[in-house]
Amino acid sequence: MKTYQDVLESIFTNLNDRILERWSSGKDASPGFWRTGEVPALHPTKSEWKYGHWLANGELEDRLLGQIAVLLQADQTRVGLFLPKQIIEKYQLHYYPSLQDDISCANDGKPCQIIRHIGADILFDYHLPESVFSAQWLLTCTKDDAALAMTQNHLAWRVLHIWNSAMRCILSCRVNFLSAIIYSNNQIPSEVAEECKITIYDVYPMDGGTWLSMVGFDLQGLQDLDEAKKKETLQSIQDELGRMVPEDHFVVQLLEEKSNEK
C-alpha cells in the first residue's frame, strides 16, 4: 500500500515524463487539431511535491517566461497559469474580441474562476472538479494502481491542454513575426501546417479555384535575417510543403510582395 506522498510523487513524476515526451518528440499529441506553429516547451522546475505542488516554466519570447503551476489537494485541485501582462497587452492589439477572455476559457470553454494581476503577470486560476481529484479517489490511489493511472493521465492531459490552448491563442496573433502569403490549389491541411510550424491567420478562396492563406512563421532568429535570407527560408518552406503534399502546388511569398499567381 502506498502513502499519500508516494501517490503525489508518482503523479508528478508521470507529469514530468509526459512533458519530456511531448517536446522531445517534436509533435503534439493531437496533430491537426491546432492551426498554429510550435508551442513553447515546458520545463519542470524544483517544487514541493510532498505538499502537492508542481511547477514548470516556458519561454515565450524575448526571455519572458510563462509559468504553469499545479496545486493537487483533495477536492481542491487547481492549475494556475501565469502569463506576462506585457505579452497579453502586446497581442491583444491583433486579437478579437478578447485574448484574455479566450485564455480564461482554455480549460473547458468556461471562464476560469479567478483572474488576478500579480506583479508583472496575470494569473489564470483553473479549478479541476473532476472525481479523479476527490479525497475518496486519491485515497483509493494508495491501494489501486488503475485508479492512480487514471489520475496521472487526467492531470497530465489537463496541464498540457491548458498550456497548449493558451499558447495557441497567443501564437495566432503573432503578426509581428515573418508574415507571408501562400497560394495553393487546396486549403493547407491542418496537420501539414502543424508540421511546418505555420500559423494560419486567414484563408480566402480565389477565382479559378486557388486558395490564399495569410500565414506567419515563428522560427528562431527569423527577425534578424536580411531579405535574401528570408526569401531563402520561404523557399525552403515552399519546398517542404511540396514534399508533404505533392499533388498540390504552392507559392510562398513575403506579405509585402505582389503576386501574379491566380
What would you say this structure looks like, in words?
The protein starts with a helix and ends in an 8-residue tail after the last strand. Strands 1-2-3-4-6-5 form a six-stranded antiparallel β-sheet. Strands 8-9-7-10 form a four-stranded antiparallel β-sheet. The protein is 36% helix and 26% strand. The protein is built from seven helices and ten strands. Helix 4 packs across helix 5. It is elongated and about 65 Å long. It folds into two domains: 4-171; 178-254, Alpha-Beta Plaits (2-Layer Sandwich). The chain has 262 residues and is an alpha+beta fold.
Keywords:
Alpha-Beta Plaits; 262 residues; six-stranded antiparallel sheet; alpha+beta; 7 helices; four-stranded antiparallel sheet; single chain; 36% helix; 2 domains
Q: Tell me the distance between the termini.
A: 68 Å
Helical residue percent?
25-40%
Domains (count): 2
- Element-by-element helix/strand order: HEEEEHHEEHHEHEEHE
- Indicate the radius of gyration in whole angstroms: 21 Å
E-strand count: 10
Major sheet description: 6 strands, antiparallel
Compute the number of helices: 7
- Uncertain stretches: 257-262
Strand content: 25-35%
Mean pLDDT: 86
The outline comes out as elongated
Spatial sequence of strands, sheet with the most strands: 1-2-3-4-6-5
